[in-house]
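Per your request, structure below.
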């Protein structure tokens, strides 16, 4: 009998040393979970940073595009003070003492709304970047300062898109950009165009 008891004790001792305890397994799982959450958080932050950089780059390119469109539009301006032949500059105030208001351009070539890739689009569901212009006289009525603003939603949430879309009043966009925590982002640029007299 003593031999059986001794053998059972030896088998029990061997079985307790042969594997991991439940606490050891739970600790290992907890450590792996914390590490995985850290890696996933880093991945999320990197993805958001990349998206933000892409949006900023695309918006900057669109500002440059509209500055070029404004310069091209100035080629149609052939008499000092008379911008009626132009598409984008026609919204300049009649008085040289007044700074122009932001407006939504309506060019015949291209559009003032762009999709996520920066392509012109007239489809409301595809509109991601929106453009506003402001034109003001400088140097009498011989030169116009054109300010271009491209804006988009800070997040892709539908609540922001309901509040602001490309047809939103530019004054509301200006107020939102001045808010303490704006729901939209923007990039702006300026250029000066002069009338092209015909020789």
């Amino acid at each position: 009998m003593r031999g059986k008891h001794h053998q059972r004790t030896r088998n029990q001792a061997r079985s307790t040393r042969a594997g991991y305890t439940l606490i050891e397994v739970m600790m290992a799982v907890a450590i792996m979970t914390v590490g995985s959450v850290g890696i996933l958080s880093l991945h999320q932050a990197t993805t958001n940073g990349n998206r933000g950089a892409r949006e900023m780059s695309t918006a900057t390119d669109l500002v440059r595009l509209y500055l070029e469109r404004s310069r091209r539009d100035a080629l149609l301006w052939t008499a000092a003070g008379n911008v009626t032949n132009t598409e984008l500059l026609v919204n300049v105030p009649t008085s040289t003492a007044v700074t122009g208001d932001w407006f939504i351009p309506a060019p015949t070539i291209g559009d003032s709304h762009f999709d996520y890739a920066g392509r012109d689009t007239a489809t409301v569901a595809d509109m991601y970047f929106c453009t506003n212009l402001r034109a003001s006289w400088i140097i009498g009525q011989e030169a116009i300062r054109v300010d271009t603003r491209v804006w988009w939603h800070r997040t892709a949430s539908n609540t922001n898109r309901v509040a602001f879309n490309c047809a939103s009043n530019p004054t509301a966009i200006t107020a939102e950009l001045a808010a303490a925590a704006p729901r939209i982002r923007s990039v702006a640029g300026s250029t000066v165009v002069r009338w092209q007299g015909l020789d």
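The longest strand covers residues 143-153.

Regards,
D.
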